[in-house]
């Protein structure tokens, strides 16, 4: 045990590197030292042992500062020596058998006066079993906490043999003497009360005091159903204007159920759409959110989640590179296979510049703007900065004679994607917005009729007495104003009617589309294990009317999933796999360190500023019995988890220890249940953190997994109990940033695909570079919860990402169709190289 302490101290005070290869900052050449010793002998034997100890101290270079007391060698009451010692002599002192504890601080520094706080590193008695060692550390920290010790967070605890924190300088004596002597620590049981736990104390007044973990912010009861971003928006005054909300219901209404409409129409909110249990509303968030929160069937209220638009890594293909020639499409063109007779739909969030595309004048390319459904006047959203025109060009270049329909879908409207799929598949769609606009239009027509009648009445009054006196002029003005108001509203309603019928006709015309390219992917906010309502729509019933090409996504390295483990019982998940050597610069398996990838594809460990979004999602198996009898004990998860974001002050350990961390954010409030079935439920936590400045950032998961899948207190026979195993999914993002965060040391092929790229029955398309290899930012690997499945289903050329690739693949399918409209040759090309680059060979 003593030898282990010596090894730790030797590494710490001499080399400046701990045994876990964590840089501990600059080490002083010499220390002030207070030695507490105890010689359990009498008279001559004590004098002999004292002389032996003193000679070893002298050999170590110890120089006393205090005047040796008279009879020190023989008097058992004397237990202290003070002086200085070179760093290389510390191990000799600590090996001396009579030394109980030492207090060290750099020779060229001074301890704070009084209760001034000082950084301390406490080395504990060790050599016990791992469980006992960790218990000793927890008990010692608890005891010292009574004397003002504040433990740091996230440091290298060296298997429970080390504590790091700060405490008042005046209380160092208590730690040196024996923490068991602290009055408030008297009730702490063994092993603490049975041994001297602290063997060495290193105080560092020359280093900053380490930061402790702040308390988790309390969520007011009235905000418990709010997502953090909604609560922040209301507090900041950003939720006072008309906007949008998303409401998660406690159940998924049946298609014939209309009762949920009254539940969500609170505070002036109107329904825009629904997909599964999630309802999209138009509302003033500040007004509607409090009213919605009062509804028992409302689980959560949040701001809308948008499909992700990733910053793309730049590609520089050779000047003579041609994707049409490389893919075999150019040869098909020479055979008059140019997509004629095939209708292709392209889904994107913006098509600014579409009117300049080839085929527009010939009316082979047309645009349907579904964002207009959100406005009573049926006017579309203003032009944006989306990539839809580029996506469309990819399709048109490959299939120049195909009919291409460009569908602008708001990025926060997955219900529109489902309705588009329903129409293409020949099913009735549920466009609540279309119905709402029709109701408004009919009401406006009634208003036009009223204005017409009023104008006619005022005209008759004027014509009864058309004199041009003062009263007559007033009658004429009243008639003119009424006539103008009537004509203005009539013209407006006529325009709205035209827009409505055009939009209704355009939507109905989608039936008969044979190929779809969807560029919209939701990486968070919805279940991404194939259980979302949108993904299940494709998987649970045949979708045979069209080939649906779905962009795989461009978030490679931003997601990770693994089995929840907490072998040391400290409440923090061990993210790195057990038994594997940790990467350089990583001292604990509990932190997932981040890097930042720029458009040049290069990664940097540090970033100056921005907002980091951390999304934790997990699926829990549940005992189905409570659900069957009408109860809902799973509104909150059985596993309680929290995400923590930390910043590393000095990644190189040049000026302070490498494991000095600062907690800059931690999730608060309850997780949101995204989806529930009879046997499981999916939950999610979102944490948005404003990065305070340069540094290396990491993510931690705090939580505890209950042993069984039944609710607490549920009576269960031993045979019916099922153990609970959870694999959480971490997803990181930086909305609006030029660079994207990626995990520095974790596998990049787990849980990579968003909704609906996680569906089994769609063709997931990844992007290939000019060499035909998968792009570095393209999603590859296994969908969340399906480790044996590999995606994407195919690669296609897409120099800007998977959206371009999905459109290129859709064009290839249209071009390869035979005279009967069959896509057999394309499907065969996909099956021949699953997950590989699709090349269409010329027909023989």
Description:
The chain is an alpha+beta fold and 844 residues long. The protein folds into five domains: 2-204, no CATH class; 221-302, 2-Layer Sandwich (Alpha-Beta Plaits); 326-425 and 511-554 and 762-844, 3-Layer(aba) Sandwich (Rossmann fold), CATH 3.40.50.200; 443-501; 557-747. It contains 18 helices and 30 strands. The strands form five sheets. It has an eight-stranded mixed β-sheet. The longest helix has 39 residues, at 470-508. It is elongated, with a radius of gyration of 35 Å.
- The low-pLDDT segments are 1-7, 10-20
Q: Could you estimate the helical fraction of the residues in percent?
A: 25-40%
Largest sheet: 8 strands, mixed
For the terminal residues, how far apart are their CA atoms?
Answer: 80 Å
- Number of alpha- plus pi-helical segments: 18
Task: Give a nutshell description of this structure.
The chain is of the alpha+beta class.
Question: Secondary structure elements and their pairing?
Answer:
Elements lengths: L1 H14 L14 E8 L5 H17 L3 E2 L15 E7 L3 H6 L3 E8 L10 E8 L5 H16 L4 E2 L10 E7 L3 H6 L20 E7 L23 H8 L7 E7 L9 H6 L5 E6 L2 E6 L1 H9 L4 E5 L20 H5 L1 H6 L8 E6 L16 E5 L18 H11 L4 E6 L5 H11 L7 H33 L5 H39 L6 E4 L14 H8 L6 E5 L7 E3 L30 E6 L5 E2 L5 E12 L3 H4 L11 E9 L12 E6 L5 E5 L3 E12 L4 E9 L24 E5 L6 E4 L19 E6 L25 E4 L4 H15 L7 H9 L12
Parallel strand pairs: 4-8, 13-15, 13-16, 14-15, 16-17, 17-29, 29-30
Antiparallel strand pairs: 1-3, 1-4, 2-3, 5-7, 5-8, 6-7, 9-11, 9-12, 10-11, 18-27, 19-20, 19-26, 19-28, 21-25, 21-27, 22-23, 22-26, 24-25
């Amino acid at each position: 045990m003593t030898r282990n302490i010596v090894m730790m101290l030797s590494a710490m005070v001499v080399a400046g590197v701990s045994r876990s290869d964590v840089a501990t900052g600059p080490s002083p050449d010499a220390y002030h030292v207070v030695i507490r010793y105890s010689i359990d002998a009498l008279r001559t034997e004590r004098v002999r042992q004292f002389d032996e100890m003193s000679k070893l101290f002298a050999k170590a270079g110890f120089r006393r500062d205090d005047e040796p007391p008279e009879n020190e060698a023989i008097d058992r009451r004397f237990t202290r020596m003070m002086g200085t010692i070179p760093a290389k002599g510390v191990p000799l002192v600590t090996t001396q058998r009579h030394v109980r504890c030492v207090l060290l601080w750099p020779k060229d520094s001074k301890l704070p006066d009084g209760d001034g706080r000082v950084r301390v590193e406490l080395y504990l008695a060790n050599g016990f079993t791992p469980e006992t060692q960790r218990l000793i550390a927890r008990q010692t920290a608890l005891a010292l906490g009574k004397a003002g010790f504040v433990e740091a967070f996230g440091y290298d605890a060296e298997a429970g043999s080390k504590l790091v924190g700060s405490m008042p300088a005046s209380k160092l004596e208590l730690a040196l003497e024996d923490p068991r002597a602290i009055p408030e620590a008297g009730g702490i049981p063994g092993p603490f009360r049975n041994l001297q736990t602290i063997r060495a104390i290193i105080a560092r007044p020359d280093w900053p005091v380490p930061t402790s973990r702040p308390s988790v912010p309390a969520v007011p009861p009235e905000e418990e159903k709010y997502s953090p971003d909604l609560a922040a928006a209301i507090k900041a005054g950003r939720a006072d204007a008309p906007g949008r909300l998303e409401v998660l219901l406690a159940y998924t209404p049946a298609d014939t159920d209309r009762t949920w409409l009254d539940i969500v129409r609170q505070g002036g909110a109107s329904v825009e759409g629904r997909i599964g249990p999630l309802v999209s509303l138009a509302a003033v968030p500040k007004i509607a959110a409090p009213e919605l929160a009062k509804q028992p069937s409302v689980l959560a209220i949040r701001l809308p989640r948008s499909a992700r638009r990733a910053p793309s890594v730049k590609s520089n293909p050779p000047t003579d590179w041609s994707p049409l020639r490389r893919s075999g499409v150019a040869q098909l063109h020479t055979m008059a296979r140019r997509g004629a007779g095939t209708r292709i739909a392209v889904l994107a969030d913006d098509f600014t510049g579409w009117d300049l595309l080839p085929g527009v004048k010939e009316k082979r390319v047309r645009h349907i703007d579904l964002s207009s459904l959100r406005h009573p006047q049926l006017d579309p959203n203003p032009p944006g900065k989306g990539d839809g025109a580029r996506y469309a060009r990819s399709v048109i270049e490959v299939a120049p004679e195909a009919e291409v329909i460009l569908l602008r879908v708001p990025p926060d409207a997955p219900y529109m994607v489902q309705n588009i799929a329903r129409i293409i598949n020949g099913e009735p769609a549920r466009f609540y917005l279309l119905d709402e606009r029709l109701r408004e239009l009919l009401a406006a027509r009634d208003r036009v009729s009223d204005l017409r009648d009023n104008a006619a009445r005022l005209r008759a009054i004027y014509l009864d007495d058309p004199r041009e006196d003062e009263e007559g002029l007033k009658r004429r003005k009243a008639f003119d104003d009424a006539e103008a108001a009537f004509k203005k509203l009539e013209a407006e309603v006529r325009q709205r009617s035209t827009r409505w019928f055009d939009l209704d006709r355009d939507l109905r015309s989608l039936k008969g589309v044979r190929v779809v390219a969807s560029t919209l992917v939701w990486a968070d906010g919805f279940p991404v294990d194939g259980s979302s309502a949108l993904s299940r729509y494709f998987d649970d019933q045949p979708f045979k009317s069209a080939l649906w090409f779905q962009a795989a996504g461009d978030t490679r390295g931003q997601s990770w999933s693994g089995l929840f483990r907490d072998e040391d019982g400290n409440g923090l998940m061990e993210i790195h796999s057990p038994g594997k050597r940790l990467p350089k610069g990583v001292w604990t398996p509990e932190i997932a360190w981040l890097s930042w990838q720029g458009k040049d594809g290069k990664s940097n460990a540090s970033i100056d500023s921005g907002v980091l979004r951390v999304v934790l999602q997990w699926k829990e198996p549940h005992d189905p019995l409570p659900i069957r009898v009408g109860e809902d004990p799973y509104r909150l998860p059985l596993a309680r988890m929290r995400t923590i974001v930390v910043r590393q002050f000095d990644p190189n350990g040049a000026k302070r220890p490498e494991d000095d961390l600062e907690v800059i954010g931690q999730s608060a409030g309850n997780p949101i249940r995204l989806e529930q079935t009879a046997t499981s439920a999916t939950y999610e936590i979102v944490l948005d953190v404003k990065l305070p400045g340069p540094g290396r950032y990491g993510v931690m998961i705090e939580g505890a997994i209950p042993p069984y899948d039944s609710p607490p207190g549920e009576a269960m026979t031993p045979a019916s109990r099922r153990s609970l195993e959870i694999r959480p999914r971490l997803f990181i993002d930086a909305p609006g940033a030029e660079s994207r965060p990626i995990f520095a040391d974790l596998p990049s092929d787990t849980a990579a695909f968003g909704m609906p790229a996680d569906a089994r029955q769609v063709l997931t398309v990844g992007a290939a570079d000019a060499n035909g290899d998968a792009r570095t930012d393209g999603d590859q690997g296994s969908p969340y919860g399906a480790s044996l499945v590999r995606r994407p289903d195919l690669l296609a050329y897409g120099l800007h990402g998977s959206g371009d690739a999905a459109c290129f693949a859709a064009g290839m399918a249209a071009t390869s169709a035979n005279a009967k409209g069959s896509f057999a040759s394309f499907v065969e090309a996909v099956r021949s190289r699953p997950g590989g680059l699709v090349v269409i060979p010329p027909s023989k």
